[in-house]
Amino acid sequence: MESINQHRLPRTISPTEYLVRLRPDIEAAEFSGSVTIQATADQPVTEIVLNSIELTITEATVRHGTVVQSAAVRLDEESERLYLTVDTAVSRGEFQIVITFDGILNDKLRGFYRSTFTDDAGNEHTIATTQFESTNARRCFPCWDEPDRKAVFQVTLEVPGHMLAISAMAETNRTDLANGWIQVDYAPTPLMSTYLLAFMVGEMEASPSIDVDGVPVRIIHRPGQGDQIGFAHDAAAFCLRWLTDYFGVPYFGDKIDLLAIPDFAFGAMENTGCVTFREVLLLVDPETTTQPEQQRSVAVIAHELAHMWFGNLVTMQWWEGLWLKEAFATFMETSATDAYRPDWKVWEGFAVDRSSAYHVDCLHSTRAIEFVVESPADAEGMYDVLTYEKGAAVVRMLEQFVGADKFRDGIRSYMTTHAYGNTVTSDLWNAIGSATDLPVDQIMHEWIYQGGFPLVDASVADGQLILDQQIFRLINKPDAAPTADWHVPLTVQVNGVDDRVLMTPQARVQLNSDDASIIIDPHSHGFFRVQYDTALSARLADGLMGLTGGQRHRLFDDEFDLVLAGRRTVADYVRLARALDGETSPPVWSTLSSGFSTIAHASNTRDEQAAFGKIWAEIAGPQLATLGFDRADDEDDPLVNEVRASLYSSLGSLSREQAVIDHARQIFDGSIETTNASIESAATRVIASTGTRQDYDEVFARFQAATSPQVERRYMFSLSRFDDASAIADLCERTLDGSIRNQDAAFMLGLAVGNRWHGSYVWSFITKNWDRIIDTVPDNAVGRMLGGVEWLEHGDVPAVHAFLDGHEVPQAKLSVLQHRERLDIHHALKQRLATESSEH
Question: What CATH number is given for 1-202 in this structure?
Answer without folding.
Answer: 2.60.40.1730
